[in-house]
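Here is one chain, start to finish.
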Amino acid sequence: MPSPTRFQQPAPHDSRRWKRRGSRLLLDCLPWLRVFADDVELPDGRQVDGFLRIESRPYAMVFAVTEDGRVPFIWEYKYGLGATDLLLPAGYLEEGEEPEACARRELLEETGYEAATWESLGSYVADGNRGFSRGHFFLARRARRIRVPNAGDFAELRVELRPLDSVDRLLGSGQMQELGPVACAGLALARLRATAPE
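Its structure:
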């Protein structure tokens, strides 16, 4: 499992940094996640015992735009939601895999598309207190379909192309229930607007 902690360390000069004095492994479900109870010291010297921290596999997600201005989304059943959700192509990084390579692989596997140009939109955690769920987001331009999708996952996926100019309305519609795809789409739209010719 790639170490999620390499993305979670504050800058060495950060005077607000908490010091970890001890750690107990509470749950080990590798390769998916591990839960720790950490004993920490705050900058003012106070001690906090049993502060929960979660290590999980990082993932990559891609907002792709086709040459004719459409975005490939996928419909997939998500067990944690108990529902089928509208998502962007995404998946966990394999051991030693770089985030962009993962995003490229997932776009091809889940949608059958590849893209000519790739841009990082950044790397973010969903829960800063626990350090949980590190996502690497990408914008891929000039995407085109080159094969039939073959995700090989538990659930069946259905690809749906949406016009790029409809994505703003989609974000506020409630059709997307997961934070990651909403954040990735919002970042991609902001980047597209910032780089659009005037």
